[in-house]
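1st attempt posting a full record on here, be nice pls
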Amino acid sequence: MNKSAICAVVIANDLQLIKEVAPLADLFELRIDLIGEGWQDLTRKLGKPWIATNRTAVEGGQWQGPEARRIEPLLHAVELGASFIDVEVNTPNLENIARAIKRRTKLLLSYHDLEKTPSLDDLKRIVRKQLNAGADICKVVSTASEPEDNLTVLKLIKEFPEAKIVAFAMGPLGILSRVLCPLAGGEFTYASISKGKESAKGQLTVGEMRNIYEMMGV
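the predicted structure (as tokens):
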């Protein structure tokens, strides 16, 4: 990815918004848990690499059904050509799920803390767990309760120079880390396709993020 790579998060079946934001985005994330029925139809119309995600409620998503049923659409996304499948690192039966995914595409293992930013040492342990489980990309997202939390998550990227990592903090106090993640060596950052379509607190729009990078000359 380039130094200002942006992943546009799709939370609804709105092809017009997707088309409008596509020139500014490097890849898409399809939030299956938020889109619901019809998400499969969007996969043929993105025109760019895409991540399939079916987020658990424990880590900030809206999937409420059985765990086995949650994994089914992710495996279907492999067949539909997903570039990455996002699976939470604490998912039950992760070894077998990861093996099935990696036969056909790449695995993004994620971790979300909805309450705080753990210590750097704790975050490093999470990344090691992700790498040991076969992650092609490690995603570690915390919640910022103080400005210093931005620095903590960004330091994590430098701790693993050979790995592909996405690390930032959610919430209003974490916006800086969202912007700086790819500039600090992260694989990409996430942004909403428009105002009111955020999938997490503190998420800027793709347009806002791109404008910031242009002003910074990147």
